[in-house]
Amino acid sequence: MNSDKNRVTPKVWLITGCSTGFGRALAEVVLKKGDEVLATAREPERLRALTEHYPETAKAVRLDVTSSQDIQTAVDTAIATFGRIDVLVNNAGHGLIAALEEVSDGEIHQFFETNFFGALRLMRTVLPVMRQQGSGHIVNISSTAGLVGFAGSSLYCGAKFALEGTSEALAKEVKSFGVKVTLIEPGAFRTDFNGRSLAVAEQSIDAYAPVSGASLQWFKEMDGQQPGDPRAAAQAIIQAVESPHPPMRLALGTDAMSLIQEKLEWVKTDLDVWQQVTVSTDYTDSNN
Asked: Which member of 19, 142, 154, 167 is catalytic?
């Protein structure tokens, strides 16, 4: 048997937010299976163990997703090192606990820069590469909160809902170029999202204590107790990327599945109950 003939060409992954959590787990599992990774983080020294263990297939680069220069450098480095980019994973981001009235303009702008506009910049920078290749897969790490609104997380939900809408439209825009798009919608996973990666608004309003205060308490109590396994999530993401027919959306976790099913039932109920009003807004022969 000719081993060269049967050798599978490794994929090249560009993954953001690799210092901890989903990004780190995914980078480790991808490298272990033999693919190549341009791993990024704001503090690339935290990725030293990856590059030391996989010196031929892993390269670490500093990337702050709010910096267009950092993004261009990361993409250029991936091309110079590995020759292509097969998979972009937009994972970098953090949570924010606050009712909408509690957040300042500055906090809103900073949050969306990191959690939404950073992903947009990366996609816009990588897309020309994938179009020229005639192939590629963009994986955007969304959340159950990208489909379901949660009290005390209005800004986080807003950023993830925006990412969902952009990704769904983008998938239709780039399909003819051989580029695929998948949204990952995790529930509660045992990462540092509930700890180091969770921010709280500088201002608190007493009236919202039962909302944002209760939400923060829930996150603290769940820290380290979340049901989701990040390495199992990494395997699921790889399975989606390797599928000839990947999903537009992939929910991860029993909790995510339950919450999303409840949301879909709620949407259908509203459509059914208000159907007569909905269709009454069309022109008819009598009022044309």
From this structure: 142
Q: What's the start-to-end Cα distance of the chain, in Å? A: 73
Predicted local distance difference test score (pLDDT) of residue 194: 46
pLDDT at 241 over 70: yes
Domain boundaries, the chain: 3-256
Inter-CA distances, 124 with 133, 223, 236, Å: 15, 34, 25
- Of 11, 143, 156, 167, which one is the catalytic site residue? 156
Query: How far apart, in Å, are the Cα atoms of 157 and each of 4, 65, 187, 198, 269?
Result: 48, 19, 13, 14, 22
* Residue 2 banded pLDDT, cuts 50, 70, 90: very low
Known catalytic residue: 142? yes
Q: Can you list the alpha helix ranges (DSSP code H) found in the chain? A: 3-6, 21-32, 48-53, 68-82, 105-112, 118-133, 154-174, 214-222, 230-242, 254-273, 275-279
Fill in the DSSP letter of residue 214: H
pLDDT exceeds 90 at position 162: yes
Q: Which CATH class is domain 3-256?
A: alpha beta
DSSP letter assigned to residue 44:
G
Our CA angle for 141, 146, 148, nearest 5°, is 145
Q: How many CB atoms lie within 10 A of CB 269?
A: 10
Any catalytic annotation for residue 160?
A: yes
Helix, strand, coil shares of the chain, percent, nearest 5, are 55, 15, 30
11 is catalytic: no
Query: 102-105 long-range CB contacts below 8 Å, 24 or more apart?
Result: 102/201, 102/203, 102/204, 102/205, 102/208, 102/212, 103/155, 103/201, 103/203, 104/201, 104/202, 104/203
One of 160, 208, 212, 215 is an active-site residue; which one? 160
